[in-house]
Amino acid sequence: MEKRGLADEFMAKRPESFWLISTPSTDYPSLDEDRKADVAVVGGGIAGITAAYLLVNEGLNVVVLDADRIVRGTTAHTTAKLTSQHGLIYAQIRNQMGEEKARQYAEANEEAIRFVTQLIEENKIECDFSRQAAYIYTLEETLIPKIEQEQEVAAALGIKAFYQTEIPLPLPVKAALRFDAQAQFHPRKYLLALAAIIREKGGFLFENSKVVDIQGDGPYTLLTVNQKKVTAPMVILATHYPCHNFPGLYFTRLYTERAYAVAAKIAVPFPGGMYINAEQPARSLRALPTADGERVLVVGEKHKTGHGQDLAEHYYNLMTFAQELFPVEEFSWRWSTQDVSTLDDVPYIGRMTAGHPDIYLATGFRKWGMTGGTVAGLLLRDLIVKGESPWEDVYRPPRFTAPAAMQFVAQNADVAFNLIAGKLLPGQGAIHLQPGEAVLANVDGEKTGVYIDAQRQVHAVDTTCTHLGCELRWNNAESSWDCPCHGSRFGLDGEVLEGPAMQALEKRDLVLPEQPGRSD
Asked: Which of 233, 460, 487, 489 could bridge to 497 as Cys pair (CB 3.0-4.6 Å)?
């Protein structure tokens, strides 16, 4: 009961990412005049900032455009593990793409770790960087052969992975692999330092400059929400979902998932290392150094965006896991994140389509964006400057593997189901809400999402997603309206939180009679 009380008290606080509250907000200007550039980069997360840094170093005129503030999206809500250990990925890639492409993936991610390490050392970036071992473990006998196979494949690819039957955490593991010379860091401290270097070297960063259209066939004209333009012969789209639907229909070849994080203060020293299990539900752990002492960051509970009912329960599940593993003194912060995955679990990085060879894509990092986004910057720099990259084959965006074909059918069948089911779902008639509650209601024959905030102000919006028309679902963990089809998310007043949707929801004027209080 005491443990649940601790969790309930913590859940009364609003979610906030430690990475954001421990760093200053940025104040780069909005695009206020038309500009020309050699390369326009859309998106100011780790992929976009890394690519811009590398291209500025090559002497190119680079403009970065972000819809919000830079480094505030998924990069600011990550676990921030810098590792080539991405679950049981190497055997998977070898089996579906062949050993050569698995080797490309391994070499690319190992190089990403070396690159970030060197960059931090050369520029003396203070970002809480520390070398750590990365462990993948299982508590299930049935997964031991998978762990053994992953070690075998990793060794063949040149990665040293050490098989163990114990790990430093107090867990009854059946098998584990240890990858040495991995790392963890503070992603915003690192990337804000890179952004400052980009400016020093003549690059441009513009915030609150959402790209709403891309016109032409090269050079391309990028039109922003404030009607200003950037014209460039080359464009990098590093925005999760591409912000423009070029041929390729990438929104049908990507899907989104939510995951959750809690930071706990524990009464014993954390043993060091970074951890993730091989089974589901996932449990990922690492130490989190703060000005107020060390915390343990516990992450997991993934699910498709817009799916599930009581999403706040995911936080409780992580807190329960932390309390079972450690003597928890307090929970300090919680947040969630949204990640984009491809159909075969390998990111799309490279030329977007054959018909648009100067439009470059970087997306689908599947929760491993610290190395994946860095790989994207390195690979795209090579394609733009040299015309080729040693890793381009494995990451080539237009690929369509056999496993991807099966996933394509499954994911789009799920989209079709949710599109139809959402239209058939009746809205509630009478509305009885307390502050902090929401409901999908039928108001004058129209489905309307209604929420009452702590000041008893009513927020009402049309709940039809502005992307392709799916019906939205309430997310009680983050107080948002989420799309179960392609993962768009909207705030209380209809503002776009996550794409692929580009347009806000229609707000509706609604006055409710005074809501009765509860007797409980």
From this structure: 489
- The residue to which tokens 């196979």 are assigned: 149
Q: What's residue 455's pLDDT?
A: 86
Q: Coil, helix or strand for 101?
A: helix
pTM, rounded to two decimals: 0.91
Question: In the 8-state DSSP scheme, what is residue 22?
Answer: T
Quote the CA–CA distance of 434 and 83 in Å, as a whole number. Answer: 45
Query: What's the CA gap between 150 and 160, in Å, rounded?
Result: 11
Task: For the chain, list residues with pLDDT below 50.
Answer: 1, 419, 422-424, 518-520
What is the pLDDT, as a whole number, of residue 416? 54
> What's the pLDDT tens digit per position in 348-406?
999 998 888 999 999 999 999 999 999 999 999 999 999 999 999 999 998 876 565 55
SS (H, E, C) 321-364: HHHHHCCEEEEEEEEEEEEEEECCCCCEEEEEECCEEEEEEEEC
pLDDT reported for residue 1 = 37
Q: What angle do CA 387, 388, 389 make, to 5 degrees?
A: 145
Contact 230/31 with Cβ under 8 angstroms? Answer: yes
Token digits of residue 112 = 């990403």
The total number of residues written for the chain in this structure: 520
Which burial class, exposed, middle or buried, applies to 325 when counting CB atoms under 10 A from its CB (0-12, 13-18, 19+)? middle
* Backbone φ, ψ for residue 31 (5° rounding): -65, 120
Peptide bond into 247 cis (omega under 30): no
Among 137, 9, 78, residue whose Cα is nearest residue 365: 78
Residue 84 CA to residue 108 CA, distance in Å, equals 9
E-strand stretches of 210-355: 211-215, 220-224, 229-232, 234-237, 254-266, 274-277, 283-288, 295-304, 328-342, 348-353
pLDDT at 502: 87
Per-residue pLDDT reduced to its tens digit, 470-507:
899 999 888 999 999 888 999 999 999 988 888 999 99
How far is residue 109's CA from residue 394's CA, in Å, rounded to a whole number?
12
Distance CA 195, CA 53 (A): 7
CA distance 349 to 240: 11
